[in-house]
Amino acid sequence: MLIMAASASRSAAQTDGVVADMSSHKPLRDVIIITDRGARVTTDYRGHFSLGGSYESATIMRKGYMKRNMTAAEMRRDTIFLIPDINTLQGVEIVAPSDGRVALKKSIESEMKALPKVPKSGWSFDFGSLFDHSKRRVSKKERARQKQILDNY
Predict the structure, then answer these.
(1) Which helix (H) or strand (E) holds 147?
(2) Is the pTM of this model over 0.85?
(3) Furthest-apart CA pair in the chain: how many Å?
(4) Which pLDDT value is given to residue 133?
(5) Three-class secondary structure of residue 46 per DSSP
(6) Mind giving me the DSSP string for 19-44?
């Protein structure tokens, strides 16, 4: 009975868990966990940590991820996810030169000149289509062979 009471009080003070990336769900190594009492723990290569002692809150942080503050009750989860830190630009202004429309028009005209011209007669012949087997009709013998392969699959 005394052993059960000792193990119950020990498990209440011991917090085990895994820290993982929220987007990929992969465990994170070298995550630093600091409690409000000053205890400091780092996760291993499997993202596992073991935190002993009593504390009210903990801060979880790693470079490239947002810092997370959690209470002792929240730390009892088996997996804690960290959100990747995304760097964003706040104010971006793009300025085009004053002759931007003229340059755009010249660019479009030069691209149009580079396109191949369609023959004016309504009839044309593509020599390359003679060797293109993607549009040919499949023979009766080949269809029977394909059907046999699919039936045996």
Answers:
(1) helix 140-152
(2) no
(3) 101
(4) 66
(5) coil
(6) EEETTT--B-SS-EEEETTS-EEE--
